[in-house]
Write a structure and sequence with these properties.
The chain is of the alpha/beta class. It has 28 helices and 24 strands. It folds into six domains: about 100 residues, LON domain-like (Archaeosine Trna-guanine Transglycosylase, Chain: A, domain 4); about 90 residues, Methane Monooxygenase Hydroxylase, Chain G, domain 1 (Up-down Bundle); about 55 residues, no CATH class; about 180 residues, P-loop containing nucleotide triphosphate hydrolases (Rossmann fold); about 80 residues, Helicase, Ruva Protein, domain 3; about 180 residues, Ribosomal Protein S5, domain 2, CATH 3.30.230.10. Helix 10 runs antiparallel to helix 12. The longest helix is centred in the first third of the chain and has 53 residues.
Length: about 775
């Protein structure tokens, strides 16, 4: 018995350390042999001493001894009761202790019964959630009436931690043990419920996927039996037929078929399926080779252009020349790339529509104003979510033909930032040597743009990069003069506004003088947009009178304009009424047309400085300095004392200081005004001038001659001084302006002074005051 007990006690001590003491062992003892199982404080010790064991042990019945393959022995035991270790009798050759049985109450009080019921309820929930606990365990627990036995049985059924089992073992009071067990069960239930929730969600997702897969397989088999085939397979088959019948280039067809092979190998629910389908659809939908036949009838084209637009002679001639060349050489592949440059409202975009109509081509338009991202032109790579081709290919798809008239509006409004330079991306599009193989980042296939006729529009050339400008043929659209605006209003604007406002049956007419008053007093522009708005306002006033049943006019006279449109909005510049010293009239060009502009010079006591006001730009300031240097170099011939430039200040001012002004063309005007102020000779009021001055007094040509001369005519000037090399530009002037103005070519500043300054000195020339020291020296 002792040997047998020693073996069992030593073995059970290690068994409890490894597996946890509270784990129950089923089966009873074959003989009435019992041993005491001790539990170590530290389960990691291999050779524990007397002080390393807990004071509470367990009386266990030995059921069976087992021989293990490695030569060790194992025992099958069943716990009976807790025992309290009184003393260790000896430790060698085996442990022998004296212990006292711990008797627990067999009957539970009311509080203990409540704890038992709570424990049973929580244990039932654990059995429902934890599949590793057999349902028989709950039934067995329901039949236990002793509180201590119930707590031990439930704790044995749970997978508790070693520390929790030790705490339960050391509590001798059944009520306290049930309280701790309830806390442990509550935590276990929370963990099991969370685990069950997660498991349910995962299982639902798996079940859903398996259900979809099963249903799709069933549907596939049913469709196969009916001869209809799979939906996805049918779509892929239809897409393949489109590719094969789309007349694609060899390279595009090869890429499309390769992508379709990838599509067939993918599961239908793969996210990449949509990307591949979209890519192949783009390849199929682009107009690779479909073109519309050109109408090469030059007379018909001329008729259409004249019908839709008045004036614009240069642009119309260039289009007719292109049509004539194409009619003589139909296989000519290179298309012109035109750039219409002019102020807003002169008909650049609408002329593009008329050209497309004359040629019989589709018209498409893209506005480039404010575009900053290079991907807007070239598209995004397919690796990006939601990637699409750039605007060029999107518009080509919308056109549906390989040879539309493609208008790129506001090309001077392209801007660059950290996202790239869209103007540089346009180089390949607008280069006839490259655009036959334009590559979009999304498509990554060469697309032929050589059959497209590109027409770009811009308000000015200053913002267009030089490499891009070099690829385009620039056609300037000058602003309309008053006579042209009247004609355009009568031909196009008035009939359109009368029809839009529903008064086309009233016979409403505008008298020429009324139109002139609207143009002069209510609009300030190079184009005709505001003119059409004002005509529309008048038409709406008449329409309201008609709708209210009141008396309405059928002829718009000049004296009715202020009543219909309100007080005058625009005041035109007029020439001076008297000849003045130090005031000269310059001719200027603006985006809204030509203007006359006064240059005023005042001479003041000072230290020889020059002040310039009136928002003069850098180029204009340098022209003023060049003019002053020229005057100093010719001071003797002009009879100007050199002391003037050291002791007097020169102030140059250009009125309407809120408007920025720049350019070199006011150089001779500034020089004339300064010379007039320094010599006292008045500038003739009826003379206007424009030209760039050099340090030697030569006069260089300038731009905007047509607009400047018409501004002089409108302001009532009689004589206009133009650089000699600009006389060729007078061919564009209306006959009335040329006949009523005296236009004199000039080559040198001496020519200007001989014509613009009066011969007599009307004001005493300014002379610097002498200092007191100089006066004393003279005495």
């Amino acid at each position: 018995m002792a040997r047998h007990g020693h073996f069992s006690a030593h073995g059970l001590s290690h068994f409890c350390r490894a597996r946890g003491f509270s784990a129950g062992c089923s089966g009873g003892a074959a003989k009435e042999q019992t041993v005491i199982g001790l539990t170590q404080k530290d389960s990691e010790l291999d050779e524990p001493g007397v002080s390393d064991f807990l004071p509470i042990g367990v009386e266990m019945a030995v059921g069976r001894l087992l021989s293990m393959p490695d030569g060790s022995r194992s025992a099958l035991v069943q716990g009976r009761k807790r025992v309290e270790i009184v003393e260790f009798i000896h430790t060698k050759p085996y442990l022998k202790v004296r212990a006292r049985l711990v008797n627990e109450p067999q009957v539970a009080d009311r509080q203990t019964q409540a704890l038992m019921r709570s424990a049973l309820s929580l244990f039932e929930r654990c059995v429902q959630l934890d599949r590793s606990i057999p349902e028989e365990a709950h039934l067995f627990a329901l039949n236990i009436s002793e509180p201590g036995w119930l707590s031990d049985m439930i704790s044995t059924s749970l997978s508790l931690t070693y520390e929790s089992k030790l705490r339960l073992l050391l509590i001798l009071d059944p009520k306290a043990r049930l309280g701790l067990l309830n806390n442990i069960l509550a935590q276990e239930v929370d963990v099991l419920e969370l685990e069950d929730e997660i498991h349910s969600r995962v299982q639902n997702e798996v079940d859903k996927s398996q259900r979809e897969f099963y249903l799709r397989e069933q549907m596939k088999q049913i469709q196969t039996e009916l001869g209809e085939g799979d939906v996805f397979s049918r779509d892929a088959s239809d897409l393949k037929k489109k590719v094969e019948t789309a007349n694609l280039p060899e390279e595009a067809k090869k890429v499309a078929l390769k992508e379709l092979e990838r599509l067939n190998q993918m599961p239908p629910m793969s996210p990449e399926v949509g990307m591949i389908r979209t890519y192949v659809d783009w390849i199929v939908d682009l107009p690779w080779s479909s073109s519309t036949p050109d109408n090469l009838d030059v007379k018909n084209a001329a008729k259409i252009l004249e019908r839709d637009h008045y004036g614009l002679k240069k642009a119309k001639e260039r289009i007719l020349e292109y049509i004539a060349v194409r009619s003589l050489k139909p296989k000519k592949e290179r298309q012109p790339i035109l750039c219409f440059v002019g102020p807003p409202g002169v008909g650049k975009t609408s002329l593009g529509r008329s050209i497309a109509d004359a040629l019989g081509r589709k018209f498409v338009r893209v506005s480039l104003g404010g575009v900053r991202d290079e991907a807007e032109i070239r598209g995004h790579r397919r690796t990006y979510i939601g990637a699409l081709p750039g605007r060029i290919l999107q518009t080509m798809k919308r056109a549906g033909t390989a040879n539309p008239l493609f208008m790129l509006d506001e090309i001077d409004k392209l801007y660059s930032d950290f996202r790239g330079d869209p103007a540089s991306a346009m180089l390949e599009v607008l280069d006839p040597e490259q655009n036959h193989s334009f590559s979009d980042h999304y498509l990554e296939l060469p697309f032929d743009l050589s059959k497209v006729m590109f027409v770009t529009t811009a308000n000015s050339l200053g913002n267009i990069p030089s490499p891009l400008l070099d690829r385009m043929e620039v056609i300037e659209f000058p602003g309309y003069i008053e006579e042209e605006k009247v004609e355009i209003a009568n031909r196009y604007l008035i009939p359109r506004q009368i029809e839009e406002n529903g008064i086309d049956n009233l016979g409403l007419v505008f008298e020429p003088a009324a139109l002139q008053r609207i143009i002069r007093e209510y609009t300030y522009e190079a184009g005709v947009r505001n003119l059409e708005r004002e005509i529309g306002r008048v038409s709406r006033k008449v329409a309201r009178l008609k709708a209210e049943g009141k008396k309405y006019p059928t002829s718009i006279a000049p004296d009715m304009i202020e009543k219909l449109l309100g007080p005058q909005q625009v005041f035109q510049s007029e020439a001076g009424r008297t000849d003045e010293v130090g005031v000269a009239t310059s001719l200027a060009w603006t985006e809204t047309g030509g203007e006359i502009m006064s240059v005023e010079v005042a001479i003041l006591e000072g230290k020889g400085s020059m002040q310039m006001t009136g928002q003069m730009g850098e180029v204009m300031r340098k022209s003023a300095h060049a003019a002053l240097t020229y005057i100093k170099s010719r001071s003797a011939a002009l009879k100007i004392d050199l002391d003037v430039f050291e002791r007097l200040d020169i102030h140059i001012h250009m009125p309407e200081g809120g408007i920025p002004k720049d350019g070199p063309s006011a150089g001779i005007t500034i020089a004339t005004a300064i010379i007039s102020a320094l010599t006292g000779r008045a500038v003739l009021r009826h003379v206007g001038m424009t030209g760039e001055i050099t340090l030697r007094g030569r006069i260089l040509p300038i731009g905007g001659v047509r607009e400047k001369v018409l501004a002089a005519h409108r302001a009532g000037l009689k004589t206009v001084l133009l650089p000699e090399k600009n006389m060729k530009d007078l061919m564009e002037l209306p006959k009335t302006a040329r006949s009523e103005l005296k236009i004199i070519p000039i080559k040198h500043m001496d020519d200007v002074l001989a014509i613009a300054l009066s011969d007599k000195v009307t004001v005493e020339p300014p002379r610097p005051k002498k200092h007191a020291r100089e006066e004393s020296q003279e005495e």
